[in-house]
């Protein structure tokens, strides 16, 4: 019996049906479309079995499947090594075309190159699209075509180009839903994928109150954040929708979305930043890298309330307020002289909104080793940060219930640590 010729749409970091560029074009193809998601063992094998980010992916796919079932379709869920999974798919189905949205991280680009080669060997056409950013890695460059490495001129060029493409195009997929392949694929339980439900939950994003974002965003007790970043990370919401909203509502919030794209293009053009300093002059710094100090930092037992509250919030919820992130990162690199890669790896394990480019970029900013970074002699005083941004101690008391019962002494004196950090950096910077 002849197989039905089909197209595939491969979900990855775009877990939504609406305003999805690759899906929009897949549904325009002449073949019925099978939506696919692959739980990639190359990524999953390193994660704890109760990872809340896997839970978010699973719940998002479940919602997509419910919507598809209402029109007589369903999503095909697979698990395994991506290339092996695709080999089974091309053996099982008469695949004519494959559509997907681009991913700009090094592992993802290598994976996609391998899959496209496999598809080409089977005479299957593949199409990739820009979806998770407004401007890709080569669309905002200097006049000579080189990438920007300083944020402000990048932002100015970004805004200049953005003004030329407003209003942003929306990709109305619903008008072509009839072109989904009629199916009722089995949807696996979370346990069948090898995971269990996490006690940590990803919060829904909110755009309420963003009109005052610039006035409230530095105060962790106010809880004025949008909780948008995990949803942008996994594409449960369209970046075009969010940028259009920010453009009309708050310039500071829009600037934060531009930072996201700035770090993405830095990672693309300078992939060494995943493990190495952007500024190689900092390669000679002699870090202390004390494991017991690092353990105390991870557990929120440094004796500095804002640092400890931030780490405990991260450990318990998978979130940390952005102002507090700067304080805890500076403390690790400057006060404890532990290299940024240690902190970056810990955040990668814990953050619900973990994104490689932003995590690496922000950690190198805090350490002073990255592009457009804070100068090495800028050392946050955690006590002054506490007085400025949580004067009444509301935030710290939420995460440190024992605070008023005689909180412990700081593990390191600020003045001594500051002098030590500056001296160590000076001695280590290569000229």
From TrEMBL:
Alphabetical list of PROSITE patterns matching this protein: DNA_PHOTOLYASES_1_1, DNA_PHOTOLYASES_1_2, PHR_CRY_ALPHA_BETA
UniProt EC number: 4.1.99.3
Enzyme class: lyase
Cited SUPFAM superfamilies: Cryptochrome/photolyase FAD-binding domain, Cryptochrome/photolyase, N-terminal domain
GO molecular function terms attached to this record: deoxyribodipyrimidine photo-lyase activity
Keyword Nucleotide-binding: no
This protein's name: Deoxyribodipyrimidine photo-lyase
Record organism: Flavobacterium flavipallidum
Taxon lineage: Bacteria, Pseudomonadati, Bacteroidota, Flavobacteriia, Flavobacteriales
């Amino acid at each position: 019996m002849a197989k039905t010729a089909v197209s595939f749409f491969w979900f990855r970091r775009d877990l939504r049906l609406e305003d999805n560029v690759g899906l929009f074009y897949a549904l325009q193809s002449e073949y019925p479309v099978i939506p696919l998601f692959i739980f990639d063992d190359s990524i999953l094998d390193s994660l704890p079995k109760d990872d809340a980010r896997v839970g978010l992916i699973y719940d998002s796919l479940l919602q997509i499947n419910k919507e598809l079932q209402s029109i007589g379709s369903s999503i095909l869920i697979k698990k395994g090594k991506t290339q092996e999974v695709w080999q089974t798919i091309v053996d099982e189905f008469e695949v004519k075309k494959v559509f997907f949205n681009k991913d700009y991280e090094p592992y993802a680009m290598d994976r996609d190159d391998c899959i496209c080669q496999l598809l080409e060997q089977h005479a299957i056409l593949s199409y990739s699209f820009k979806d998770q950013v407004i401007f890709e890695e080569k669309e905002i460059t200097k006049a000579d075509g080189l990438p920007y490495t300083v944020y402000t001129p990048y932002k100015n060029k970004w805004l200049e180009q953005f003004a030329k493409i407003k209003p942003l195009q929306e990709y109305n997929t619903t008008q072509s839903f009839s072109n989904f392949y009629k199916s009722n694929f089995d949807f696996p339980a979370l346990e069948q994928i090898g995971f269990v439900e996490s006690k940590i939950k990803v919060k829904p994003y909110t755009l309420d109150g963003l009109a005052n974002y610039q006035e409230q965003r530095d105060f962790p007790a106010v809880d004025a954040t949008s909780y948008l970043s995990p949803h942008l990370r996994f594409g449960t919401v369209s970046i075009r929708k969010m940028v259009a909203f920010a453009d009309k509502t708050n310039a500071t919030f829009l600037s934060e979305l531009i930072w996201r794209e700035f770090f993405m293009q830095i990672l693309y053009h300078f992939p060494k930043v995943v493990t190495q300093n952007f500024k190689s002059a900092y390669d000679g710094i002699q870090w202390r890298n004390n494991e017991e100090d690092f353990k105390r930092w991870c557990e929120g037992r440094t004796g500095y309330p804002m640092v400890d509250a931030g780490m405990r919030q991260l450990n318990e919820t998978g979130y940390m307020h952005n102002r507090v992130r700067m304080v805890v990162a500076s403390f690790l690199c400057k006060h404890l002289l532990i290299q940024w890669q240690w902190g970056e790896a810990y955040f990668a394990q814990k953050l619900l909104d973990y994104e490689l480019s932003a995590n690496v970029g922000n950690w190198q900013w805090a350490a002073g080793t990255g592009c457009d970074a804070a100068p090495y002699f800028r050392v946050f005083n955690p006590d002054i940060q506490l007085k400025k941004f949580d004067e009444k101690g509301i935030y710290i008391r939420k995460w440190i219930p024992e605070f008023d019962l005689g909180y412990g002494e700081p593990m390191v004196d600020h003045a001594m640590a500051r002098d030590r950090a500056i001296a160590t950096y000076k001695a280590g910077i290569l000229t």
